[in-house]
Amino acid sequence: MRLTIAAVLSISVCCLGLTACEPHKRTFGEKVRDTIDPPKGPIEKAGRSIDRATGD
């Protein structure tokens, strides 16, 4: 029982940090690029998200 409570509490604490982040507001150019040339898989989608988050 204690292990379950500890696991739930640790997951809750980890998720609290993620809820503080604001989602990136896509610009018009980014929306057009995603429409014309959509990401071809999860790796390319993650790469674009990282590029936008770092400002590259």
Q: Write down the secondary-structure element order.
A: HHH
Beta strands, count:
0
Strand content: under 5%
Oligomer: single chain
**Poorly predicted ranges:** none
Structural class designation: mainly alpha
- What's the gyration radius in Å? 17 Å
Give the count of helical stretches.
Answer: 3
The overall pLDDT, averaged over residues, is 78
What fraction, in percent, of the residue positions are helical?
Answer: over 70%
Q: Termini distance?
A: 47 Å
How does the overall form come out from the CA principal axes? elongated
The main sheet comes to: none
Number of individual domains? 1
Region (Disordered): 31-56
SSE blueprint and pairings:
Layout: H1 2-19, H2 28-36, H3 42-54
What does this structure look like?
The protein has one domain. The protein is elongated and about 50 Å long. By secondary structure, the protein is an all-alpha fold. The protein has 3 helices and no strands.
Describe the structure concisely.
The chain has 56 residues and is mainly alpha-helical. It has helices spanning 2-19, 28-36, 42-54. It is built from three helices and no strands.
Key descriptive features of the protein:
56 residues; mainly alpha; 3 helices
